Amino acid sequence: MNILLELFVVTFRVLWAFVLAAAKWLVRPKEKSVAGQVCLITGAGSGLGRLFALEFARRRALLVLWDINTQSNEETAGMVRHIYRELAEAAPKVAGDGEKDVLPHCSLQVYTYTCDVGKRENVYTTAERVRKEVGEVSVLVNNAGVVSGHHLLECPDELIERTMMVNCHAHFWIVIKEKLFDEAI
């Protein structure tokens, strides 16, 4: 009898989880607007960091891009500036009867900084420069990372240390020590 009761409870919980998941899928929560907010993206020179930068640019965020590679970081910034120009051209003009733009008009800019997040002092000095030149950061996308592409036992000690510095320690240096950001994702 006890087993049948437990089976009924488990079945009910599984079905209830499906109902809740379907409800969340159908009624999506309102997305946070990042328009006009300062968003810092680490590892913005390529890969996911670049894609994050382009998406945040489409959403009218003021971007601060960090990457160890200056050239690829500037390439990403060029793509972002192109999106900003397209947004400025496509923005509807304010009508004479007082209609306002759907999206808030703000000064869209992109700032690039060369920063090796695996080096604590480099993170600290770059963070101070951002504070002085841009202001407080609202959103952090801590995306920088190192991938070795080798099995752990095949990696030299230096690569393991570098991976830990960038993929683990850098998160603490950027978020906790500096208290530079309002929120991190």
UniProtKB/TrEMBL annotation:
SUPFAM superfamilies per UniProt: NAD(P)-binding Rossmann-fold domains (SSF51735)
Gene Ontology terms: cellular component: lipid droplet
InterPro entries: NAD(P)-bd_dom_sf, SDR_fam
Keywords in alphabetical order: Oxidoreductase
Gene Ontology terms, MF aspect: oxidoreductase activity, acting on the CH-OH group of donors, NAD or NADP as acceptor
Family to which this protein belongs: Belongs to the short-chain dehydrogenases/reductases (SDR) family.
Descriptive protein name: RDH10 dehydrogenase
Native source organism of the sequence: Bambusicola thoracicus (Chinese bamboo-partridge)
